[in-house]
Design goal:
The chain is an alpha+beta fold and 281 residues long. Helices cover 17% and strands 38% of the residues. The chain binds S-adenosylmethionine.
């Protein structure tokens, strides 16, 4: 993939950062997202008044400021560049947004991101990938992650938008702009003991699930044979799959939450019939 952030000339940025003895990892030089990309990112994630947006490497604050002003959200941004953080807080004050948008001088790798319902970043490609473990460890299932230009390797994006923008030419030499939207998945991996409607199984069914970040696959052991889960999908806490049994296909929908799965199944004579699963011993 082409490089949309200049990969050089970023080192000098840290000279003014008053954030402690450890020199932070350089996650990218200051290159603001074009305002149209900011609006498109926030619209893609359907940001609204209930959201708390955190921008890692917030620059002049435009993402969090736009989220507050246009989309009614709250949030904060962190940056290691003192001057940019000051500028962003001044802009929040000037726009009457200080109660909903604030900015701090902080290393983004050490920032507590647990409060985010939407997390945004426009960082170097290796940095985006260095953050993968942190994102999975700290963000709640269902949190939306927006990345400008660079993907999270191994994650399946929920949505993906590509556009051409003239104002990217002076940054990267090309017009290509990408926005990736991801949804943090719940943990579904493991062996579950499922209770299905009696029409499908009178006995508890063993459900074996394998998960690789946003990908999930597995099988249900029913009537002494393993039936593969078809079209298994995990989006945040929402887990859906199909099972082909006795010549019919049943559509399962469930929520993976609090160490259990609960949901409904449809197919044949079944409509909104309850099913659930608990971790198997
Ligand atoms: C490409 S700019 C993105 C600015 C803004 N998010 C936007 O999209 O307009 C990346 C920002 O990350 C900041 N940055 C780089 N390394 C950082 C680190 N370790 N901790 C916090 N901020 C960092 C830079 O100072 C720069 O402002």
């Amino acid at each position: 993939m082409h490089s949309c952030l200049p990969l050089v000339a970023a080192g000098a940025l840290f000279a003014s950062a008053a954030i402690g003895a450890d020199k932070p990892v350089n996650a990218g030089p200051y290159v603001p997202s074009p305002t149209s990309v900011v609006a498109d990112m926030l619209a893609l994630a359907e940001v609204g008044p209930k959201d708390f947006v955190i921008d890692l490497g917030s620059g002049d604050g435009r993402i969090v400021l736009t989220a507050a002003k246009v989309f009614g959200a709250r949030g904060f941004g962190v940056d290691i560049n003192e001057k940019l953080v000051k500028e962003a807080n001044e802009a929040a004050r000037a726009q009457g947004l200080s109660d909903r948008a604030s900015f701090g001088i902080q290393d983004l790798f050490k920032t507590d991101i647990r409060k985010a319902t939407v997390l945004t970043m426009y960082l170097l490609p290796n940095t985006v990938n260095m953050l993968k473990d942190k994102l999975l460890a700290e963000l709640n299932p269902g949190t939306r992650i927006l990345s400008h230009d660079y993907p999270l390797a191994g994650w399946i994006p929920e949505k993906y938008v590509q556009m051409d923008l003239e104002d990217k030419v002076h940054i990267s030499g090309v017009t290509t702009t990408l926005i990736y939207l991801y949804v943090v998945p719940a943990r579904a991996e493991g062996r579950w003991s499922a209770r299905l409607p009696a029409a499908l199984s009178k006995e508890p069914v063993r459900l074996s699930l394998q998960q690789q970040i946003t990908r999930v696959a597995g099988a249900a052991r029913i009537g002494g044979r393993d039936v593969l889960l078809e079209e298994a999908r995990l989006r945040g806490e929402r887990f859906t799959f199909r099972l082909a049994l006795g010549g019919r296909t049943y559509a399962f929908t469930g929520t993976v939450k609090g160490g259990a799965i609960e949901g409904t199944v449809e197919g044949g004579a079944l409509k909104d019939a309850a099913w659930s699963a608990a971790p198997a011993n």
